[in-house]
Amino acid sequence: MLKLLLSRLATAIPSIVGVVVVTFMLTRLLPGDPAAYFAGLAASPQAIAEVRTKLGLDKSLPAQFVGYIVDLAHGNLGNSLSTGQPVVAEIATRLPASAELTLFALILAVGIAIPLGVLAAVKQGTWIDHLCRIVTTAGVSLPVFFTGLLFAYVFYYLLQWAPAPSGRLDVFLSPPTHITGFYLIDSALTGNMEVFWGALRQLALPAISMAIFSLAPLARMTRGSMLSVLGSDFIRTARASGLAPGTVVFTYAFRNAVLPVITVLGMVFSFLLGANVLVETVFAWPGIGLYAVNALITSDYAPVQGFVLTMAVLYVALNLAIDLLYGLVDPRVRLDS
Amino acid sequence: MRRRSFIKTTSAAGVVVAAAPAIWSEAKAQARNETLLIVGESPPNSMDIHGVGANRPAYEVSWNTHDRLMTYGVKKDANGNDHYDYTKLEPELATEWDLKPNSVTFKLRRDAKFHDGTPITAKDVKWSFDRAVTVGGFPTFQMAAGSLEKPDQFVVVDDNTFRVDFIRSDKLTMPDIGVPVPVIMNSELCKKNATATDPWAMEWCKNNHASGGAYKVERWQPGQEVVYARNDDWKNGPLPKIKRVVMRIIPSAGNRRALLERGDADLSFDLPSKDFSELKSSPKLTVIGTPIENAMMYLGMNVNQKPFDNVKVRQAVAYAVPYQQIMDSVMFGQAIPLFGGADNKFKGVYWPQKDGYKTDIAKAKALMAEAGYPQGFETTLSFDLGLASTNEPLTVLVQESLAQIGIKTTINKIPGANWRGELLKKNMPMITNAFGGWLNYPEYFFFWCYHGQNAVFNTMGYKNPAMDALIDKARFTTGPEYEAAVKGFIDMAFEEVPRVPIYQPLLNVAMQKNVTGYRYWFHRQLDYRQLAKG
């Protein structure tokens, strides 16, 4: 197991190095002059030159790259100019916000998609199968920002069931003591129920809009994979042996069908984490996607590099986790490796 | 069957979340009444107005948390709303001043203290002014606009007396001391946090406060919100009525409007023109639109390139702009027209003002023929994508209209981050852009936008020695001589028309009916100190 872990980690190193180099080059290739942007409204050419020196942008590209690598080795991702803060600190506060939203949405999606997919496969052709088809079609065809806006309009503006789409907490609540950065967990740990409820209420709409979107691939995959397993010989044998239908479906069929579902789960998760910028914009969610997009708009190099690097590391970690999970679910994978 | 029970509990939780009523404790309802919630689009990037690249929201933080020596008086504008008065300077930290031809001496308030309790003295004022003229970039530039250039000009007479020596007689010196840049900072506190490489504590001040103003920053979450609490010991003006101010960032314009309409937010500046024009008729909200002083949206032409080096071509373009259409379908009436005046002449010592151009395609065609381009030509029209909600429809209308006189334009959209750099190169043939100056003097606008010093805002690259002479003269004279100079350069700008004025934008703000005391400021940021709620 440890050997597998280490060999997988070793293969990840070249991709991380590649990401570091490519992001550095890409941000430099982008059009736009950060010095001119940040020198402010009434900047003279020499004021812009001063800003350029201050930002170290007057140095040659290789010199800038060496500086970047040295900083990186010290765990320093530089400073964001548009928020004025160190990128590491910003990512540390914003990543939990995105992760909390994404995980919550994913749990919601899995909780609905897997039972729905299993039922649709078991009762193929019945109303529940049709329901599954409608839900998945609707899920993929409604873009997240659209459901987000629609939900905000209906549940906040018209019905007033949901709180204002104004971020992670109501304006009049203070954030809980920082433990994990997940407001739900932190407030539960400190026993602050008012903040817990506040955070949960704020989380509901964005999480549901994301869940609807990610539900579709999960439910489709569960259904398809269950169908092929249910049609295989060993299930027929199990049925013929007179095993209870529940045992056949869950103990034998589902366990064998879950592997591709985990693959899709991993893909959906990484996709959601990076691509939830639209939901973050609609719900004023102070997440990492919103941060990266704002930085791109202002040609703010450091946060863009920090964002891409963080995401790359996360993807590598996620793929590793999924590989390990395969082994737990299916002994054959363990033997192969 | 754990999965099933899981579905049950999650879906049940979903219902509870949606239907749970707001949990308002008594204390929180009270807090709501004493708190002003502002929703905005862009967050401050620094707590220090002298910092590199400090943005406009950062000016707002600085304005409300710091004192300046003087502030401006107030008057009523044409609609009966409060408007700062640029002709009247009033005491803030300074209780009185003695203006002489070569210097001005300020008497400082004796009981004023910084937030940490240290008394504010003349050495703090000197340190702060020295900082502003030394650190470079925008603050130094703005100080220089009022001939405040060297630390030797700032003299500590005694603890409560501070003198500024003039290096030349400049009528902008006194007004410039009242702008957001020369803030008074706690010099001892800053020095404690300064380092050998950073003598002005720039790094520390980015995230910390060394101020003594009417509000203190209670919490700043960069990119998300700023929470202010009133400084109850403030002595430099009447105690503000609002105890707490929360400025929260809501990136989606639609949601900012929804929050206002539902009464969850109290005030916002950042809405599209269309929303403001619709909200005007809302019974629940007050919308105030104030013309932005010394500002205009214009169509600029590069006079150093063919065919715009020909004044006849420029005039033809000025007669081909679809002005009224822009007013109606781009601005929804939320702007002041700067076209269709009686003639193309000076109408008084104020700026911007109407020129004599109006949409007249026949005349434009005749001018094109006279200029030697009866068949027209091809060119590009560039705009800043950062302000696309206005620029995009505006340029499309201009494109259609110019096609009628044979000018084929390609629209070139430039990303916001790139715009300033492109302006600096001065090689775009035609652009739409807006500019506004803080100090409300025509010659101040012209100094930036038409003077041969060729600042970045002279986007047309216009250089005319006769124009320069008139602008320079206006800067340092008064009386009839001054008026003659202003008349001279305005007439010349209309005749030569390197930039075609289109409209003067409005600074719109929407707020709940129970919010009162809003005042327009030249810096276009919100002053919390005059607001009241309830």
How would you describe this structure in keywords?
heterodimer, A: 337 residues, mainly alpha, MetI-like fold, B: 534 residues, alpha+beta, D-Maltodextrin-Binding Protein, domain 2, Dipeptide-binding Protein, domain 1, Dipeptide-binding Protein, domain 3, 3 domains, eight-stranded mixed β-sheet, four-stranded mixed β-sheet, 18 helices, 24% strand, globular, membrane (chain A), BPD_transp_1_N (chain A)
Assembly level: heterodimer
| CATH topology term of the largest domain in chain B | Dipeptide-binding Protein, domain 3
Secondary structure class of chain A reads mainly alpha
Number of individual domains of chain B: 3
Largest sheet of chain B: 8 strands, mixed
Query: What structural class is derived from the secondary structure elements of chain B?
Result: alpha+beta
Query: Average pLDDT value of chain A?
Result: 84
Whole-angstrom Rg of chain A: 24 Å
**Bulk shape of chain A:** globular
Range of helix content of chain A = over 70%
- What is the architecture of the largest domain in chain B at the second tier of CATH? Roll
Separation of termini of chain B? 56 Å
The poorly predicted ranges of chain A are: none
The CATH architecture designation of one domain in chain A is: Orthogonal Bundle
Q: Given this structure, which CATH class of one domain in chain A is correct?
A: Mainly Alpha
Largest two-chain interface: A-B, 70 and 70 residues
Indicate the mean pLDDT of chain B.
89
Give the percentage of residues in beta strands of chain A. Answer: under 5%
GO cellular component, one term (chain B): outer membrane-bounded periplasmic space
Pfam family, one (chain B): SBP_bac_5
Family (chain B): Belongs to the bacterial solute-binding protein 5 family.
Main location (chain B): periplasm
